[in-house]
Design a protein that fits this description.
globular, mainly alpha, homodimer, Na+/H+ antiporter like fold, about 475 residues
Chain lengths: ~475, ~475
């Protein structure tokens, strides 16, 4: 029978297909309906376990998370893009603003129903998971971008500027704590932890934002650019080391803090002196010999090492962020491995994860907590102290090393950029309970103001170079 | 004074740096200690808000998540690699096994303390968030890989085989429901939803695993390979369409289900007839003209569209997965955009997110629920029904279209691969409450057995081609 059928014309053949297909579908439907008729009479055991309502709640959680992530990603792009195009600001400013817009400060105050719909309290834990993973990955990338050559071979000006730009705001911040502590802290936090944290958090420089601004203005190769990058790198390492000490002190008794510091020192030594050479020899050297995309095994190895290092610092009693940063820092910052890791992780982290972190920060920032003239005066004082300490300290140190006033001022302005690094530090302080939500909000305002003022001040000092000609959005924000 | 200092020798200069640096540090320390002495006498307001204990719990949540993710990623790679090297199995088998090993079935039964330490109940929600985002992204990639040419221009054999491979297991599964429903279901689920779900879930073919097996054996260009790929693609679309109907029926009353189906049809029509041409014209065509890496704006646009589409299907009442798949399917499956999206998302999803999904599945799989000879008999019956329906249906349909017995059998074996697609479907059924944890466990065993048997049976039928010569791990598991 197969031969005559096979020799039929295509048209007839298609008809035959159609007929047999319909017959099959019809027969299936009839057969299923017969089965169903049998089955409808059966009785199942009584229901146990989760009720339908619980299951419904579960499913609507996913809907909330998808909605929140979608709105956050969209708004971050729109506001970030607007800041770049209309104000010539780095997009990160707009992304932070987008997070605050979605929080209780703006949307929650103007239209509480919309805020409750878009970012209900129930979505906060899931958003927290996304933003924590995002920040851990981001800190790994910051560590990966750290160029050891910027830390070595420092000139006088680098050392002087970077340390002055830490010491000055640190001391001013600690002094400011004398007034802030009795008003805005709580008795469960000691003055030492509070003042150390305030001092360190005023000393932060946003290395990624600074690198991006330098590249946008095409000054990364000049003396000013190189000094600024080197200072920021030294600042980064110093501030995070100081912060690790502060966290150790804040979370333990004084004797516990000594142990924490000893563990941190031992862990850093272990990573630099043992893990780094081993990794270099058994993993990095091999990966650098290959070409093409990174294998899944290599990627998994880096992820496991990253999670392990983050976990180690979390167990020591400082934060997972330090371990992630440290692992990035011991890997080479250029070559195939670094390039491949960045191309795998960076875009997803910057586009999908970090906006969630900004939104999570925005949900915790409540400008309504800063009310009355006294609160706003202290908020202004925090901004002033931050600027005077960081800008002033860098300015005078740079001038003393022989830079021109104009370039010294430009360096001071650059070092004064706080950006998202400050937000990471502030969230850490809030998580640990070292700072109260009111101080948190004031400091978020400070971070925004100091980052925002960088671009117009640089325009004034250096002319509007690079403005109106932003580099393609696709280029990653890293040291060239 | 600047001139004589500037002309000093470098050595003296370094000494001067060291001295001034030490003086600065010393002065800072003294200044801080003075501030601290003042501050220690201050009193802060009484503590309010979260207690230290709550904060501690919060911080240890992050540690648990990092630990869980690290262990999951590591074990998935190790067991996946072992399965590939020692047994010649696709790594996905090992990754699924790793998830089950970490769950209550193995680790929880043998060493409950270790399981409680590595994967405590408290980490399940965070792991759920990671695994849900991972599966949504994965289904987007599966949709993106869908080659429309495989669906068009079908030969007789493709249509016959693909539909036989759905109809046969569907009817057998629905029949099996007559025995399973009174024993293992619950009164809160109607027989219709239960039997439809059982039928559809036996009809699943794992397109990604199948594509990978074909490529590993280098038969993707042969008639057998092309037919298998085309059948699996048709199966994919048909099974997911059917599943959407089942979910619609399971979550609503009969009249509600009709509306759900109408909404689904309208949404698919909207995506295919309106969104697809608009996207093609305003987005895809522009992106294809550029070269180099995808811009952040384009990536954000795709993410927002993906989250929006997932949300739309979630709101309609079927699952977010359908929307993610559909958005992937309306984007072109080759060209710069597809290539760039894959290189940005795929590796992170496969290495970091999917193992979390397997672990989440493993946490819900409790082999202890299948106990006694009756349970194991039914478990065997499910495996047998799945194999007879899928393998038998494809075998006879392929033979009827004129394929050799050997190739028909090989095609049947390939279509019988369930892989991770089955796990996605089963988790959905468990989330909706259509199947009980016992049936879930039995079906997971079925998915493992049918995927596991594919490689040895193909070795028997086609010879051990490709074995011992696996392609580099780095190559993504997709249709060439």
């Amino acid at each position: 029978m197969a031969i005559p059928f096979g020799s039929l014309l295509p048209r007839t053949s298609r008809l035959r297909t159609f007929v047999s297909y319909s017959v099959m579908l019809g027969a299936t439907a009839v057969a299923y309906l017969w089965i169903r008729a049998q089955g409808e009479q059966l009785e199942a055991p009584a229901a146990t376990g989760a009720s339908a309502a619980e299951r419904g709640a579960h499913s609507s959680d996913l809907a909330h998370l998808l909605l929140a992530l979608g709105v956050i990603t969209l708004l971050a792009r729109v506001v970030g893009g607007a800041c770049r195009r209309l104000l010539g600001q780095p997009p990160v400013i707009g992304e932070i603003l987008a997070g605050i817009l979605l929080g209780p400060s703006v949307l929650g105050a103007l239209w509480p129903e919309a805020q409750h719909f878009l970012l209900p309290e129930s979505v906060a834990p899931a958003l927290g998971v996304v933003s924590k993973i995002g920040v851990v990955l981001f800190m790994f990338l910051v560590g990966l971008d750290l160029d050891p050559r910027l830390l070595r071979g420092n000139t006088h000006s680098t050392i002087a500027v970077s340390h002055a730009s830490i010491v000055a705001p640190f001391l001013l911040g600690a002094t400011l704590a004398l007034w802030l502590y009795p008003l805005y802290s709580s008795a469960s936090v000691g003055f030492t932890a509070f003042s150390l944290f305030l001092g360190v958090s005023l000393s932060i420089t946003a290395f990624p934002v600074l690198a991006r601004i330098l590249r946008d203005r095409r000054v990364q190769g000049t003396r000013l650019g190189v000094t600024a990058l080197a200072c920021a790198a030294v600042d980064d390492v110093s501030a995070w080391t100081l912060l690790a000490l502060v966290v150790g002190i804040a979370t333990a008794t004084m004797s516990g803090a000594v142990w924490t510091i000893a563990y941190v020192a031992a862990y850093v030594a272990l990573m630099m002196l043992v893990v780094r050479p081993l990794m270099q020899r058994w993993f990095v050297a091999r990966e650098e010999r290959y070409e093409g995309p990174l294998s899944h095994s290599a990627l998994a190895f880096v992820f496991v090492a990253l999670l392990g290092s983050a976990l180690a610092t979390e167990w020591i009693g400082i934060h997972a962020l330090f371990g992630a940063f440290l692992l990035g820092a011991i890997l080479p910052n250029e070559g195939r491995l670094a390039r491949e890791l960045r191309s795998r992780i960076e875009d997803v982290v910057l586009v999908l994860f970090l906006p969630s972190f900004f939104a999570f920060t925005g949900m915790r920032t409540s400008i309504g907590l800063v009310e009355g003239s006294r609160d706003w005066m202290f908020c202004g004082l925090i901004v002033l102290t931050a600027v005077v300490g960081k800008f002033g300290g860098s300015l005078f140190a740079a001038r003393l090393t022989g830079m021109s006033w104009r370039h010294s001022a430009a360096l001071g302005v650059l070092m004064n950029t706080r950006g998202l690094m400050e937000l990471i530090v502030l969230n850490l302080g809030l998580d640990l309970g070292v700072i109260s939500p009111t101080i948190f909000t004031m400091m978020v305002i400070m971070a925004l103001v100091t980052t925002f003022m960088t671009t117009p001040l640089l325009d004034l000092l250096l002319g509007r170079r690079g403005f109106g000609d932003p580099p393609p959005d696709a280029l990653p924000a890293r040291t060239p």
